[in-house]
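TL;DR need structure tokens for one chain.
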Amino acid sequence: MLARLGLVATATCLVVAPARAERYLVHDQREYERARARVEAGDTITLAEGTWRDFEIVISGAGTADRPIAVTAQTPGKVFLTGQSSLRIGGRHVVVSGLVFRDGHSPRGEVIAFKVGSDDLAHDARVTETVIDNFSKPDRYDDDYWVGLYGRGNRFDPNHLVG
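>> reply
TL;DR here they are.
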């Protein structure tokens, strides 16, 4: 009888216990894509320090207020996105932080867009501690949009835009 009660208690704890958040440290775009395919609420994808050239970051998922999905720099300010790079965020409760866009331009309309597509807008997402430094199209007559806010409940703070 006590053995059965112990098994029931153990099974109940396993069902009630929250899933453990995963942390993925990625060093290239292929590793990022593999991590992105597996990311769930509470997980963090960390971009290794260094220069990431021609990298179109896309992140979308179903985070929660208590367990957002995060994409962060290994060390804030030491992950540089250069060349033709951009960031697109969709889903709910996604946080991106610590990136630096410099020495390039976006291949899209915006450098940072709070949408992945017209059917995947960001809601309750945040971009923070991010820099866009002279990240403009080479032809000065082309339109440049550094940040496009779509969806609702999104935050873009505190960040640094220069140039």
